[in-house]
Amino acid sequence: MSTPLNLKAMFSQASTPATQIPAGKINEQETYKSYGTRICGKVTAGKGCLAAYLQQIYNSERRKQAQDENLQQQKRSELQNKLIELDGDIRTEQSAITKIEADRSLFEIKLAELKENLLIAKSKDGEVNKMAKSKMDIGLFIIAILTIYLFIFYSSTFYTAFLFQLTDSNLDISLGTAMFNSRALADAWDHSFGEFLFIITAPVIFLGLGYSLHFFMVQKSLTKWFKVLTLFGVTFAFDCILAYKIGEMIHTITGWSNIGNIEPFSIKMAIKDINFWAVIFCGFIVYVIWGIVFDMVMTAYENLRSNKHEIQSIQEQIANTQQNIADCNNKLNQRKANIARLQAKRESLSNSLSGNIFINEHQIKTCLSDFFAGWIGLMPALGCSQADQSEAQNIYDTTITTLFIA
Fold this sequence. Notes:
The protein has 406 residues and is an all-alpha fold. It contains 14 helices and 2 strands, in the order βααααααααααααβαα. A two-stranded antiparallel ribbon has the order 1-2.
């Protein structure tokens, strides 16, 4: 890493008196490790000489680098390139800030509109909601038609499946008659009052299941989906039983009409029987539609004189928009902090580029490390104790810290 140094300061640091250390300079072809070994032997590892030689090498290397025009030009070019990169990074951050501020302005405009809409919605709370009234009226009309359909369908299918008795005189029953028997109520009344009650109350089971569907759907917990699926499962099972009984009856009538034995009706046969699926879909699908329409009617009724859902929706949008604004503010703070950091770095580099020389401290540290490696490597051969070597290490560490102090 390059460290800038003022020329006057550098040469003032290099003014160590030559009388403080024994004479001896590094030879042109000599490495610093060999130089350290030679000097250590020359001064017999004198403790007072190590720090002085380290200072001398430090000053010598700094002077060489200061006088190296190629090195100085290279370092200046590197700094100028870094300044160009920093300017580009700063412009990128400024562009990002401009975009984030534009997004924040849009969110703030949206927030103001939402707050105004909220006031309007609250002021209308209690008035008749025309849209909700229209939905409710249309839904009630559809519910009425579907209720009549389901009452006829389930009263007929229950009568056919559980009360109808096959005789030689009524073998002409068809699928349509089984599902929509206009005589079901009258025949049940003729048989007994209990059968009549059974037939008129049976459709209520399915209407009740559809009624329950709405109250499960308005729940907030995730368990509502388990309840809804269970409800559909129970209804579907009911329809399967009715479809199986009716399919079995039609299969029996077909067998009586033919000469010879026929195979008994089974679940496997029912799955392949179109009559079986016709009964299921004519009942189950209409039941599902009835439940959905009923849920829509109840929801419309809740909104008839209340803007609760509209107000709640606007409040949720306000909360989301406020969160978006907060996110924009956080992003702006981060971008501005990045710009401040980049500008501080740019100012530091710009100051370094102005009238200073550049020194490669890593290179100087390598020279000093090699010199000390040669020095301490010879100490055992000179009879120096472990304590002397440890003291030399301490002198080296202290000197390095002092020379390269931040």
